[in-house]
């Protein structure tokens, strides 16, 4: 091919040439390459997930990598100045002034997209429950830490159209089978429940009363979450917040 060297097409000074040569491309923070010698492990784990899905009767679905951001964070639709810090927003050159409730974001998890697909494609008219399975990358703009990435991979089992705890038990069992068939031996499943809607509401009120006088001692994320979803304060890993959480959990549980 001719003229591959752009420097010969566009005359530049010596200093320009040096700066062009210095460009050093690196993977963005929090993402990684999966090299050929690691592929066999990835392929094996995907294959096992497919097999578990088949045995448990979960059918494969693929959903888009990006969706309307409001699907992942309902506060976007109602309040323009609350933007979830974890979301990666997607925009193209042509779409510069898109209103925030129309903006697109990379999926941070699968459940919201699958629920959207279920409704949009009329799957609620099919015989229920619908058991779906998917896998692939998800994206969260989290603080990168050892073993934690901003693009990471999930395997997802969902049962829709069955509100009973039986459906939860099936999903937990499928995950358990997946991990044990992979050969993991020290697997521990911790089951948690947020309780009924009424008891959640009561607990939220108690949490708000507890945290209100402590607000200025909490991290900025928790200060935002206080209004948005006070239960999330109990997830915080910041040292300044953990001690208040421990005190809280000692009082009411
Ligand atoms: Zn916090």
Defining traits:
BirA Bifunctional Protein, domain 2, alpha+beta, 253 residues, binds zinc ion, three-stranded antiparallel sheet, globular, three-stranded mixed sheet, 12% strand
Number of strands: 6
| Main β sheet profile | 3 strands, mixed
Q: What is the architecture of one domain at the second tier of CATH? A: 2-Layer Sandwich
Unreliable parts? 1-13
The helix-strand sequence is HHHEEHHEEHEEHHHH
Mean pLDDT: 85
First-residue to last-residue Cα separation: 71 Å
CATH class of one domain: Alpha Beta
CATH homologous superfamily assignment of one domain:
Bira Bifunctional Protein, Domain 2
Instruction: List the bound ligands.
Output: zinc ion
Number of helices: 10
Strands of the biggest beta sheet: in what spatial order? Answer: 1-5-6
Structural class of the secondary elements? Answer: alpha+beta
Q: Strand fraction band? A: 5-15%
**CATH fold description of one domain:** BirA Bifunctional Protein, domain 2
Q: Helicity range of the residues? A: 40-55%
C-alpha geometry: globular
> How many whole angstroms does the radius of gyration measure?
23 Å
